[in-house]
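Duplicate of #3305? Posting structure anyway:
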């Protein structure tokens, strides 16, 4: 059975639908009209990349976000509503990564066609305003991306059993590459001197990565969601934390304005890494982070070299 986790957002669906002007003469929740093509929607660029590799030519894929878009603050546009209403299957991350799109899915009555791919992973937690919430950045641990790939495969097979062999083989090839990547990341991070394995980034998107590969998140400028605005006190506290742990370099991220983290680096008297990290989105086409595998590899080399380790380039096998 296709799983979804829209429980927390369902009550917001009506408001989202009204705000976006959703209206239809069809029966609510009836789903798309019959079509020969499998219409699949993915909310994030990371999910879109994994889905494209598993689905191949058997699906017509729409990614609602473009490379560089921030899912935390993304505001749906009218064509997103159309894509969701016409989709046979919708993949979203879940754990409230993309709140605007989760509300849109609920408001469109599409919850029965939606799969929270990230929620196949048991989450790490974070505390926000006194509440414990699941961290949505599950893909930071490549082992979790393998679980997500298998969840995508299973949902596509349920949707289109006649393509089971294609989806299964595509997923097998992808998960083999991901397993190789997982081992490679651990090897590169291990080259960092033990006392330098401290990660400071703009927002708290690297808990899974750090937990999987032996790093400590020494601090972040803002929390899980990029909607937060750091106060002068927060900046000061982060500067003090950086000085206390003696980390040599901190990192900006591609989806967030680097100005504030640059200020932190200047006040702490340390380096801001030349290479920004990919956090919530893959990179633009032809960039060094233009796929999930490439973004993890690019991040790993950026982190390892900036923290006084070394990095041997990741070599992908045949897709």
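Output from current build:
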């Amino acid at each position: 059975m296709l799983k979804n986790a829209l429980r927390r957002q369902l009550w917001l669906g009506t408001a989202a639908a009204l705000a976006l002007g959703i209206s239809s003469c069809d029966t609510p929740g009836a789903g798309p009209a019959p079509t020969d093509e499998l219409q699949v929607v993915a909310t994030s660029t990371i999910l879109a990349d994994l889905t494209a590799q598993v689905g191949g030519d058997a699906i017509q894929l729409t990614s609602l976000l473009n490379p560089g878009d921030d899912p935390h603050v993304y505001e749906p546009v009218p064509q997103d509503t159309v894509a969701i209403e016409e989709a046979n299957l919708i993949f979203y991350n879940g754990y409230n990564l993309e709140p605007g799109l989760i509300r849109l899915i609920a408001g469109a009555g599409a919850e029965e066609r939606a799969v929270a791919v990230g929620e196949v992973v048991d989450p790490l937690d974070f505390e926000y305003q006194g509440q414990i919430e699941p961290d949505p950045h599950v893909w930071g641990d490549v082992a979790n991306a393998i679980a997500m790939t298998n969840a995508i495969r299973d949902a596509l097979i349920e949707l289109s059993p006649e393509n089971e062999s294609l989806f299964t083989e595509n997923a097998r090839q992808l998960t083999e590459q991901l397993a190789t990547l997982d081992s490679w990341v651990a090897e590169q991070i291990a080259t960092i001197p033990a006392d330098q394995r401290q990660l400071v980034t703009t927002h708290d998107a690297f808990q899974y990565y750090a937990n999987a590969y032996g790093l400590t998140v020494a601090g972040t400028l803002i929390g899980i969601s990029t909607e937060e605005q750091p106060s002068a006190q927060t900046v000061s506290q982060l500067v003090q934390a950086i000085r206390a742990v003696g980390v040599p370099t901190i990192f900006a991220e591609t989806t967030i304005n680097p100005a504030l983290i640059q200020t932190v680096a200047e006040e702490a008297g340390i380096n801001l890494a030349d290479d920004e990290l990919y956090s919530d989105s893959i990179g633009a086409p032809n960039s060094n982070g233009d796929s999930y595998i490439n973004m993890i590899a690019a991040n790993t080399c950026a982190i390892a070299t900036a923290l006084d380790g070394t990095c041997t380039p990741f070599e992908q096998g045949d897709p």
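Confirmed duplicate; merging threads. The mean pLDDT is 86. DSSP finds ten helices and ten strands in the chain.
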